Amino acid sequence: MKIRNKQLLGFIIGILGIVLFSSKAVLVKLLYKHDVPMITALFLRMIFSFPFYVFILISSSKKNTNSKISTKNFIWILFFGFVGYYLASLFDFIGLTYIKASLERVILFVYPTIVLLFNFLFLKEKISKQQLVATLVTYIGIAIAFGAEVSVSGSNVVLGGFFVLLSAITYASYLVGSGWLIPNIGVVRFTSHVMLVSCICVFIHYAIISETSIFSYSSEVYILGFLIAILATVIPSFLVSWSIKLISSSNFAILASLGPVSTIILAVIFLDEYLSMIQLLGTLVVIIGVLLISRNKK
Fold it and tell me: Is the model's pLDDT at 177 over the cut of 50?
């Protein structure tokens, strides 16, 4: 394949992966319209994802028969599965019960700034002046977009925003901590392991607190749960990895700025959500800030 065609394919795959990832918040909000509790929505996502990751893990293990995972690395996998996918997903789904899908994506999009801070605090990586300015720009954008919504919808938006921010923090901590582990295990095996750990955590959580039978809902609920699992979780996770391989992570970081934009468009089409001009301005400022940080990464 020619380099130009290879890059074009990478960009197309990357955009598709980003749009599918961005659809998660919209699909979850549609699920909530059927009076589905938060933990049930999360359970449906994981129960439909589970067999796919089992199959992927078994397939990858057959190709790596000689590479066993040490006890120490397995403990870290348990930790990252709990923090990086279970807690991050839990906080995100809670947050979506209070705020718009479009606003959720804008808040989640700040995770690169949190990664930057964690790298500084725990890995002693210096923050350049440009990164510092970009971080400040990003949070000014959040303040603009979020503040306008608070003035209209009140304290529930603050609570929802807080949980989505917790989701961004837990996901960022997972990215920082797992970076050294992935090269030892491999992307596919690592992702499959931590996703299965996350699934099991959700299953236990659901079994403890759920008071409603999983079989008591309409067919639309199960269709939406399946779409969240496959279209918004499994498929885009591999599309993004493929895109990064074809066009590099720095180029993909530019494409990633389409995430909040695609969520806003999908939310307008399927949820009748609208952001004010001030909120759109704040979203644009956030995107600019994150792009500046992504450009300056080594």
Answer: yes
Mean pLDDT score across all residues of the chain: 85
Tokens of 283: 């979203």
pLDDT of residue 297: 53
**Helix segments in 155-257, DSSP class H:** 155-178, 182-185, 187-209, 219-229, 235-247, 249-256
- Taking residues 52-78, what's their average pLDDT? 82
List of residues 6+ apart from 209 with CB closer than 8 A: 39
Domain residue ranges in the chain? 28-295
> pTM of the predicted model, to two decimals?
0.86
Q: What is the DSSP string of the chain?
A: --HHHHHHHHHHHHHHHHHHHHHHHHHHHHHHTTT--HHHHHHHHHHHHHHHHHHHHHHHHHHTTT-PPPHHHHHHHHHHIIIIIIIHHHHHHHHTTTS-HHHHHHHHTTHHHHHHHHHHHHS-PPPPHHHHHHHHHHHHHHHHHHHHHHHHH-HHHHHHHHHHHHHHHHHHHHHHHHTTTHHHH-HHHHHHHHHHHHHHHHHHHHHHH--S-TTSS-HHHHHHHHHHHIIIIIHHHHHHHHHHHHH-HHHHHHHHTHHHHHHHHHHHHHH-----HHHHHHHHHHHHHHHHHHHT--
pLDDT of res. 199? 95
CA atoms within 13 A on the CB side of 15: 6
